[in-house]
Amino acid sequence: MPPDTTRDASLASQAFGAALEVVAAVAPEVAAAIRSELEDQRHALKLIASENYSSLAVQLAMGQWMTDKYAEGATGKRWYAGCENVDTVEGAAASLAQELFGADHAYVQPHSGADANLVAFSTILAERVEKPFLEEQGVRDTRLLSVKQWEALRQRLVNQRMLAMELTSGGHLTHGMRANLSAKLFEVVPYGVDPESGLLDYDRVRELALETRPLLILAGHSSYPRKIDFRRFREIADEVGAVLMVDMAHFAGLVAGGVFQNEFDPVPHAHVVTSTTHKTLRGPRGGLVLCTSEFADAVDRGCPMILGGPLPHVMAAKAVSFHEALAPSFRDYAAAIVANARALAEALMAGGEVLQTGGTDNHLLLVDVRPHGLNGRQAEAALRQCDIVLNRNVLPYDPNGPWFTSGIRLGTAALTTRGLGEEAMGQIAGLITTVLGSAGPIEDLRGKPVLPDALVDEVSAAVEKLTAAYPLYPDLVV
Asked: Could you tell me where the DSSP H helices lie in 113-201?
């Protein structure tokens, strides 16, 4: 578990208990749902790769009166008076993030990873397209442009190319999916993985970059189970004069914990790095942008460029989580995440499961459930019946598409926080294989899995035994 001492947990029990009593007096159904969520998480094996368990200190930092403050603008440059305490909190979070990742500059206002990506896109456009245009026109500010000049600038801004990982190969929807604003901001040139190995083909990425000369090359993923060579990406970006942006939302904790170093650490190689703070980094739900000094002024204009008022209470929680990630114990935690993921992958393959790329180098893995006669949605539902919680996920060149999918995605960050180790991963792999083997085949794509009651009882009992042995917030009573 995150670093909560017995004394701290006892104080947290009093704090959360009192808070829920206050909430229940106004909205009893909300208080009941909050309590129910704690019980659900305590009794389930959480294998969702994008989730974790934050510390009680992080959670308590969010539940306070800074939520009532508007603090639009940057630290020391607010549009509202009375933001001195917010400045302290935001400044602390940004400084800690710079120290944690070795970054020139950090911007901690984004509410989510998607917001962080939008801030990054807008920053790159502002610095590499808008700024040169203003210099050409001999003006310092867009407000000084004529209507004709403004229209010319707008046309430049929306006609830039971005090279990004295709969704089914592991990219995120904010990396150029047509339903997302990113595809409307850029002409997106997608790159995929090798159809046979499932691995990134850096030579093909370079070919595409040379052919299309993008403004921006985006690396990073939502469901790629291997390390990425960011040094190679930077070499490609430099060759074509592109900005390199990395979305490390999923593996930020592995970077902070020193598991990903040298060419696998994006911060020394990328111009701009974005992240969430709640996945492997184990902080509150929120976003983060790191950048070189070149982009610092532009990124600090995230509000009003993209964001409205920041969330000071969440920035406070980010600062707390960065303190935790700077502790030596976090390095052990990050290493254990990867060790558990490899153990889980090996045990699943030993049980006959088919894994994308044949394993994992990070915190997540993808299982192809088609050999069981299932699609991802069916597999997800079958496992949920037995208190094993994960999500369906597309595989490269997936014939079932992004809704039904052919795979499931598993992650080990949350279970590692609970203290489960490699031996437990072997047990969990056995439970997953048992459920999948009993759920299929189902011929109808929309058919629902029907598991024998005895099997559900057996697997659920095994899950309960594991969760009881590794309790979630064991000293928290609400």
From this structure: 113-125, 131-137, 147-157, 181-185
